[in-house]
Amino acid sequence: MIELKYKALVLPLLTCSLLWGCGNDGKDGEPGTPATVGMSLNQASSIKAKITQVSIDAGTVMVDFDFTNANGVAITDLDTYPGVDTLGMGIAKLVPQEGEGYKTPQWVNYMNNLVAPNSAAIPSGYEDKAGPKVQPTIETSCRQECLTQPEPGHYRYTFRQNLASVTAIEGLDLSYAPSLVHRVSMELRLDSDRARLINTHYDFVPATGLEASDEMTRIVENTQDSCLRCHGDNYSLTGAPSLILHGGRRIDTANCQMCHTSYAADPETGAPLDLGYMVHKIHKADYLMVGYGGRLHDFSEVTFPADLYDCRVCHQEGEGRPVDAANFRHHRALACGSCHSDSTDPVTIKEEMHASYQAEHECVVCHSEKDDEGAGHHVTDAIAKENVRLDYRAALVANSARLEGGRLSFSVSFMDSKGVAQPSPNTDTRLKYSTLYLGFGNDVDFTKGRASINLLTLTPVAGADGVYSYDVASSLDSTKVTAASASAFITTQMCVDRDTLTGVACGTGTDEAFNPSVIPGKAVVFNLSGDTGVSPRRSVVSNESCAQCHDNQYLAKFSSKMHHSGRRSNFEGECQTCHNPAWASSANGLIQDHIDFKVLIHARHGQTAVVRAEEITFPEYIGNCGNCHKAGQLTLAGLDKVPATPAVDELDNPVEYSPTAAACVSCHGPKESLLSHIRTNGGAANDPRGTYQAGAETCAVCHGEGQAFGVDKVHPVRFD
């Protein structure tokens, strides 16, 4: 033990003596070169660009930006990376407008071309409209030649185009105006991959060198909150109808504004390319233009799913929206003319508008000042309908319904949002429609029975404090419905006045809406035995999801694209009281034409219906179930008691489809490989009626949401 201790001391002592022998010169070593912290684009799984500053010196525009991954790690080879297939920069000034009332400022691009029409591409009937037109542009040819990297991950793009020598365009003031707000736009794409695409912009005032505040610039629209409510943004999915344009390079409306200016036009058709005009016309299905390479773009088959007259469908206001979102309320000839005139000439539009409206309206209706509400008449219809929809409440009183001796008794509550009692529908002169819908069999998709009761013509047997009792004859089969879990819905239609923005006795409003407000009632779960704890129907879709595109405007100002004249309004269950597998007349058609809700909605939006086919331009990818369904709604749970959906095959033989099979085939069609797979796993698919035994399907084991081959995995599902 002593020997071991001694040996343990030898090495440290020897080491110290050697160090003493080396001596000390008293100087520190020279500092090394700091290591560069960064990565290559080959290593980056995400990319992000942020413009930090723009400077303009003697007409030379220099744009500084940081280029990193999503975690902020510098990417150091953008200037040399061979896969940069797109790097475009644009610059424009925001020019105030003059005229009667407030005019929204407009972008004037410094880089423009006078483009002659392609004579071979002029559509028939447009020969007199074709001619040279001004088209703004951006700088795209310089790319990495104009790029330097002063510091790792920090780049500078120097425009090749000097602002002092831009191409002159007759009628446009293209002089450099440093006191005005300017915008620089940037588009960058790598490896022709839409998943590696960046659109960004920077608003600034050259005279101060400072970034422009939101109040100083012009945004109007927010791509995420406005356009992407309906349109898809799965840019990386090939074939998906996502809102990506110009060869898969442009996705941001702020950048779009730079070229789609008030003076831009299509040389082959004369159609204005002004963003407001063009977007309005496209959604009206009334726009035709010739694009790159002479390709004709005809938008006459576009279907718009909401109230086209309600500007707020797209012009979203409120918290989180652009501070100038309300600018749509201030008129511009082209924007107004896109709906009110067939002319594309601002002077002609103005003359037509004056001739049509001056006699009955004050000038301030259109020509309002900045802080006043202009064009308010465009939204009063929708606001009045929304006010009463949010205020009026009609619902079955839970557990008040009984079925005895062929008579159904029940009570209904009519209140406003503050709990103030409302009249019974038969005495409420504001109402045009009030119907109670009952569906029996929450666990079997209401296939045990249904009933609809017109409350508008029914006199209560008793009532007080907004709660009214009724007693009606009923043909419901008590052996099927008495113990069944059930759901009740009430849909109401109320007349509204656009002057007071409230409900009004029908026919008495000073400016009464052409169509009433549709007020959907919430589901009330009950059974006729008065049991508590009754389970609701499974939740697989929400009204909020439908409203993303349909916007709760079941009846538009002048018309409705919703079936049943807007009288069915709760997509979470009311529609299914009729739209279920038990609807007899649908059993005589192909499965894609059945009105069973899970079939109908898929087939209608996916354009797979045959006899019931309807032209719909669905703006998202139909394979993204997350368009309509929320996370947790695709588990395929709750289908074990749902009966098969009857149909006929192509030879008119009676067949049936098990619940999951019906939904799958409604999109994919009755492909033999799919039918065989379904049968192998306990389902019925194009099989003789009576084949399916409820609960025999095992689809959910593999294809339920979250499973190994869940619908959320085998489809490109993106939940919001």
UniProtKB/TrEMBL annotation:
Keywords: Signal. It comes from Shewanella sedimentimangrovi. This is OmcA/MtrC family decaheme c-type cytochrome. Gene3D superfamilies: Flavocytochrome C3, Chain A. Residues 224-371, 538-716 form the Outer membrane cytochrome MtrC/MtrF-like domain. Residues 48-210 form the OmcA-like N-terminal domain. It comes from the Bacteria. The keyword Transport does not apply.
